[in-house]
Amino acid sequence: MIEIVSRDRCIACDKCIEVCPTDVFERGPDGVPVLARQGDCQTCFMCEAYCPADALFVAPQSHRLPAGSELLDEARLAEQGRLGSYRAQIGWGKGRTPGAARAIGPALPGAGPRAPLTS
Fold it and tell me: Hey, what's the signal peptide range on this chain (predicted)?
């Protein structure tokens, strides 16, 4: 279930709002998405996969975590490299270049044009 939207990392691109199949997010008054319907999260990881700033954390559990869970500690997750870790596992993480993994996923700012797909 989606657990964290990092206000420090978020660039307010609205990708998470756009890709969420169950409309979990709403744009906050400052532009940073908020978890408006967390209980509707299907734990599909789409938001985390598409977040270009690694500002989201989806816990693999499909239920809310108890208060005090280490998986709710944003600083600890960042230190462990777990914010955006799903994105990295599927090859959409930082450091990818056009043509790598057949340029799957959203274009990253400054990444240049995508390489053509070849078979």
Answer: none
* Strand 25-27 relative to strand 33-35, pairing: antiparallel
pTM: 0.70
For residue range 66-111, what is the model confidence (pLDDT) as tens digits?
Answer: 666 666 788 888 888 888 788 888 887 665 544 444 444 555 555 5
Question: To which residue do tokens 């274009």 refer?
Answer: 107
The DSSP bridge partners found for residue 56 are 5
Domains of the chain: 2-99 (3.30.70.20)
Provide the terminal-to-terminal Cα distance of the chain, rounded to the nearest Å: 36
